[in-house]
Each structure stands twice: as structure tokens, then as C-alpha cells.
Amino acid sequence: MYSTVQHIISAAVLILVYFEVPVCGQSTVDSNDALGTCLFPSSQPNLDKLSDEVSILATKVDLVQRTINEEISEKLPKVCNISDVIGGLRGTIERQNGDLNRVNTQVTNLLGVIRGQQSVISQQNAALTDVTTQLGNLTITLQEQQTIMAREREDVATLHASVEHLTNVSQGGAEKQDVRSLEEKIDNLTKLIQDLISERKPYTTVSSATNETATPVVKTTTSTITQHINYPSDCGEISGAPTGVYTIRAGTNTSKPFNVTCELGWTVIQAHTYQGNVDFNKSWEEYKNGFGNLTSEFWLGNEKIYRLTSQSQYKLRVEFTKRGQVGWYRVLYDHFFIEDESDNYRLNVSGYDTTSTAGNGLQYNTFPGRHHNGQQFSTYDRDNDQAPGHCAITRAGWWYDNCVSSDLNRANMHWHADGHPVILLGQTRMMLIRKYP
Predict the structure, then answer these.
(1) Best-predicted range by mean pLDDT among 76-90, 153-167, 406-420?
(2) Using one digit for the tens of pLDDT, what is the confidence trace for 404-428?
(3) How many helices (H) and strands (E) does the chain have?
(4) CA 72, CA 66: separation in Å to the nearest integer?
(5) What pLDDT, on a 0 to 100 scale, did the predictor assign at position 69?
(6) C-alpha distance from residue 118 to each of 109, 121, 327 (Å)
(7) Does the first or last residue of the chain, that is N or C, have fewer Cβ atoms within 10 Å of its Cβ?
(8) Mapping DSSP to helix (H, G, I), strand (E, B) and coil, where does residue 302 land?
(9) By three-state DSSP, how is residue 135 classified?
């Protein structure tokens, strides 16, 4: 607005200057009247009126300018104060932005901690599930214990009845001496049985894969009384016991007992570690009878596996870790057994469980030559595979087709299933459990 007023004043001044020029033709004019008469002889009244209006306008302009100056003087401090306030607010906003950035950083870090805790909680939940399963498997019912105790009491009663019978029919000092000797033996055996009952141990534990438990036999001059220890037929019958090595009798009551590793009701038949201490490239006889240490790496033995799987229907569980990693993968099969030695311990496995955490590596169906199911067992000194060469001679004992797919016994052990890449293995375990307890 002030600029517009200035332009109006300048225009008025130019008009006045223009009309004050003292020239008319070639003559010099000394007054404004003469100038007006010379230039515009008939316009003098108009010029006077214009001059008055310019004066009035100048007065108004001067008044407007003073008013503007007063308003500026009055409002300028307020504007300055507002500027200071804005500057203060700007500083406050910048500080708050800095605080907000720090809070965002803290929130981001906290979210990372929360995600880490969630991962730990997930792992702990998985571990808790495993512990719950173990506790369920470790539970032994009172009825089972009572059955075991009743069986042992019946055996003790039978022994005492035999002693009484021998006492009644014996004659002469020599026969009585034999009876007393027999009675002492029976008493010792009775005490042993009672100890077993009191300790709730209807089975024996061992610490070595080579130890075996013999059947105690008591002889007399008139008859033979044989007391068989009631060995379990597999680990499923001692599911309440902690993980460890136990003696079982698989097959028939006359079969020779042998030691196995039990894990929560499962009978472990194989355990192998990459670059471990046991060489698995063994002979036919070694794979037949078993080798290794039941507390670390071992093969239970094809004959023992046959005796186990011939007495009932069994499920197979294969567990392994990836090389260089920790977590275990589990592959379950609903049916598993092997034939006897006359059929070279032929493998029969089926019923892959779709809840398994790895693919079906024992029934590779995409390509020929990769089927383990239905194959006979081969070792470096017994070639029963389908390959032109001899698979086991450079690998280890296994149920080979054409030397490929999965192999848990070779040094470079691996697992290969349909539609999955080959998994190089760090540790492996194979175990059985009775399908119908």
C-alpha cells in the first residue's frame, strides 16, 4: 500500500513540474498564470481545480502514511515477539523430534528383544512338549507293577512248594543234607527275587554292549527246577525305565537274551556319527551279530532285528541331524520288518507318515534304482544289490538297490527323498516300537 501512495505522489509532482515550465513559443514567462495562458488560454479554472485536488490528495497520502507508520510501530514488536515464539517452538519441535527418534530406536530394539524372546519361548515350548511326551512314556501303571510282583510271588511259592515236597519224600541223612543244601539255594534265590520286587526292577540293566545275562538254573538230585527271569521282549515293555541299556529276550522264551539301548519305549537298532569312532564298513557276520558300543555308535545286529520284528508288528523311526547343525529331523514309517538270513534280511518298510519333518528316503519312487524297500542286505563280502558293481564294498552294509538314495551307515552318510535335495548327515538313529502294545 505504501508503494502505491508513493507512485501517486510522484505522478502529481510531475504534473505540477510540467505545468510550471516557463516557455511559450520563444518568450520567457515569469508566472504560472502566464504559462497557463500561453499554453492553455481557456483552461485556467481546470488547472486551479486540479491543483487543489492534488493538494488534498497529498494531504490524504500524508495522513495514510502516518497511519501506516503508526500501525507498523505498534505491531512490529508483536511481530518480533511472534518470531521469537516461532523460533522457540521450532527449537522445541526439534528437541521433541530428537526425543521421538530416540524412542523409535528404543522401540525397534525392544521389538528385536521381543522377537528373540518369542523364538526362545517357541524353543522352550517345543522342549516342554518333548518333556511332556517323555513323562507320558515314563509313567508305569500300578496294575503293571502288581502284575510283575504277583508273577514273582507265584514263582517264590512254586519254589517253596518244591522244597516242601522234597522234604516230605526224602529219606536218610545224605538225602536230608541234599535237601538242606537245596533249601539254602532256594532261600538265596527267594531273597534275590524279593529284592527285585522291592526295587521294582523286573529286568536287568547292563553297561556294555557285549554283556549278556544268563538264565539261572537250580538243580536237585531228583529233578531240575528252572527259574526263568521274565525278560521283556522289547523296550516297549519297560517304557517306564529311564533311557539306558537293558537286557531283553526277543523271539521265543528259549531265545538267548541280548542287550539293547532303550529310549522312552523305543528299541534303538542303529546309532552313527559322522567322523565317529566306529567303522561301519563291516563284514556280513559282523552286521549279522551286531557291533559297536550301545552307549554311543553301534549296529544292533540283523539277526536281533529279525527276531524283534518277527514277534510282532513294528513302526520305524529314523532320526538325524544335518551336518554342522543341531536340530533333529524325524521320519516315521508305520510298518517295518526284515526277513531272516535265508532271504538276506530283506527290508520291508512302508506307511510313510506325512507328519515327518523330512522326506521319504527309503521309498524313492521317481527314478529306478533308488528303492531301498524290498532290497536284500549287502556288505563288502556279500553282494546282494541290483547294481552292475558292488555298492557296499566302498560304502557300508545297507539295503542297496543301485547304490544311490539314502544311506545311514556309510562314512559320508546322507538322506535323499523324492523332490528334496540330498541332506548330508551329522548324526543318525534308527529305532523301533511295537505297533500294537
Answers:
(1) 406-420
(2) 779 999 999 999 887 888 999 999 9
(3) 7, 14
(4) 10
(5) 82
(6) 14, 5, 18
(7) N
(8) helix
(9) helix
pTM of the model: 0.52
Q: CA separation (Å) from 50 to 5, 18, 55, 178, 284?
A: 18, 13, 9, 166, 136
Neighbours of 306 (CB within 10 A): 20
Cell 556279500: give the residue: 382
C-alpha cell at 3: 508503494
Q: Are 19 and 33 in contact (CB under 8 A)?
A: no
Q: Which three cell numbers stand for residue 373?
A: 524297500
pLDDT of residue 101: 86
